[in-house]
Structure formats: structure tokens, C-alpha cells
């Protein structure tokens, strides 16, 4: 049967999910099966988009195809490449805080982070007054808006990062292989379809195994309820730093994360589940950028991670997750971050929060509903971009 390899891979991936070492209860397992569904959708999409001669940008992750502790503030796109061909990317710059490009030498695996062969943001390219631009990628290319593809180049990743969800708008992107414009790919064959189902199956099992191992490697060996100093993100952008950790809290506890507002154009915090994906960021405040947060008079943002509603604007809802991941990101940097730029984490009793927050200012229930409504509207608009 044509689809049998993919069906076998789904069954194998389901076993990996069911046997995940972090599962403690029904919620963990239910979320695992939902994560599996997103992986099935994403793997089919990626396998059918695997065309290095007639590439196009696809959404790498989204609200229903999550992976790799996806950033709620980011639209992710990717296209496949050959390292011996030339490609042209045309686009129009939106009003987002950051637009970045990265060339990877392959996919993630349970033991490796893909090598970043090139990484830059739109400050490195010329953009016309109307926001339009053209970039070329190919072996041996150099000069403004031209970037060399090193041996092993396999994927172009593009990130559009929103800091203010309400006002920033996405741009437009297109890619084509320079010597294939005006041509067409060969007609599909049953052999090609069969191969794609097999590739999709490998991608599915691989992504689930990979990111479970990735989280254990980079997070779970850290002391619980602590955060690292800012550091370059493994496998990430040259202009991105992150601070990471994992939490475990009782329902009457809160983690207060205090961090200075930096000079980075983008700065944000998010929570993730034990499946290493973002929590529901549409209907709950499980992430905040600096423009979305309340900044205290001393220039600090104090996030309150808790299950119980603490009645503050910077409440980060953990939505029933007594364990999970915490990540802060700074992007579009023009300098290296130091420990003094990073966060301080403290676990306190929820009832003691008014005494622990020096600029405690309650938020009314109606104002909180307005915040959630704004997230819902902004996410819906962004997903159409």
C-alpha cells in the first residue's frame, strides 16, 4: 500500500509519545497526542515541499504544527536548497521588529544541532524605499545582497519577529532557482509520491525524537526554577541571545522573573510544555514582549509565572502545567549580552506577591479580558499574513 510507510511511522511515533519519560498523568499524554497530530500535519507539508529545483517558502511551524519551543512572536518560513545552484529571494519588508535569514546544513537530529552556515538580518541588505528587496544565494557569490552558499547548504530559514502584535505587519517573500524561472517541474509519478510518504514518515519520527532529546540536553540538566545568563542560542541566529530554564511549581507558588529592559529591539519571555512546544499563546497570556508587558519605574519587567491568577498585568499563565520550560530571547542585537542583562528568578508564595513586587499594581478582570481579546485578534490577523 502506497501510504503504508507513513502509517507505520505514525504508529512508531505514537509509541515514542506514549513512552516519553516525562509523562506523569493524563494531561501530559493528551498533549502528546495533540503534539503528534501537529507533527503529522507538518511532516506531510515538509515532504511535499521538498523541492530544491522549484522551491517555495512554507510555514515551518505555527499554532497547530508546533516544534522546537516555537516563539509565539515569530513567523517561521523555510525553503530547501542545493549548494551548487543559485537562488533569488524577492520580498517586501513588513513593519515587524526583525527579519532574519539563516542557511542551515541539514536537519536537527537527536544528537546534533544543525550547523549555521550563514545568519544575518535585514540590516545587511539594501532595501528600496518602498520596502522591496532582492537577495541572491549561490556558490561563490559575494557583494551587497549576494551571499555565498557553502558546501552542505540545505535549507534557508526566514524569521519575521513581532514585538508589538497590535501594530506590526508581516511582509512578503518569494524564492526561485535562478535557472528555473519560467520552467516547470516534471509531472508527478507514483514512485515520487511513494517516496514522499516514506520521507514524511522519517521526518515525523525524527522530529519527535529529536526535540525530546534536545530539551533534555539543553534544559533539564539545569537546576529547576533557575534561569541561565544570556547566551547565544544553540543552532540559532548570530544576533540572538537567550536565557533558558525549567520550572516546577505548586499551585500556591509563583516564579517571579525580574529582567531589565535592554536596548535590544526585541525582548520577550515565553513558557513551553514538556513536549518542548509553546503553550496556548492565543487564548492565554503565556508569553510577553516588552511592549506587551508592564515595565516598572526602575526599568525592570517583573513576570509572574503561576497557576493562580495573581491579579497583575505581567501574569504568565501556566494553564495547568506544573512543569515546563521558560525561555527569554533578545534579538537584533548590536552587542554581546552579559550576566547583568539577564534575569533573576525567585519562587515565592502567591499570597506573598504584593510584598514581593515593589511596584505592585492590580489589574481589573475587565482589563485582563481586554488583553486576551487583543491577543486573539492580533494572532488571527498575523496568521493571514
Description:
With 385 residues, this protein is α+β, with helices and mostly antiparallel strands. It is 24% helix and 27% strand. The chain has five helices and 18 strands. It has helices spanning 4-18, 26-48, 190-220, 353-356, 365-383; strands spanning 58-59, 74-80, 87-92, 98-104, 116-121, 132-138, 146-148, 155-161, 172-177, 231-232, 240-248, 253-260, 266-272, 287-289, 300-306, 315-317, 323-331, 344-349. It has a five-stranded antiparallel sheet, with no helix packed on it. Strands 10-11-17-13-14 form a five-stranded antiparallel sheet, covered by helices on one side. β10 (231-232) and β11 form a beta hairpin. α1 runs antiparallel to α2 (26-48) and α2 crosses α3.
Concise structural overview:
The protein has 385 residues and is α+β, with helices and mostly antiparallel strands. Helices cover 24% and strands 27% of the residues. The strands form 4 sheets. The chain has a 5-stranded antiparallel sheet with strand order 1-2-8-4-5, with no helix packed on it. Strands 10-11-17-13-14 form a 5-stranded antiparallel sheet, covered by helices on one side.
How would the blueprint of this fold be written?
Blueprint: H1 4-18, H2 26-48, E1 58-59, E2 74-80, E3 87-92, E4 98-104, E5 116-121, E6 132-138, E7 146-148, E8 155-161, E9 172-177, H3 190-220, E10 231-232, E11 240-248, E12 253-260, E13 266-272, E14 287-289, E15 300-306, E16 315-317, E17 323-331, E18 344-349, H4 353-356, H5 365-383
Parallel strand pairs: 6-7, 15-16
Antiparallel strand pairs: 1-2, 2-8, 3-6, 3-9, 4-5, 4-8, 10-11, 11-17, 12-15, 12-18, 13-14, 13-17
Helix pairs in contact: 1-2, 1-3, 2-3
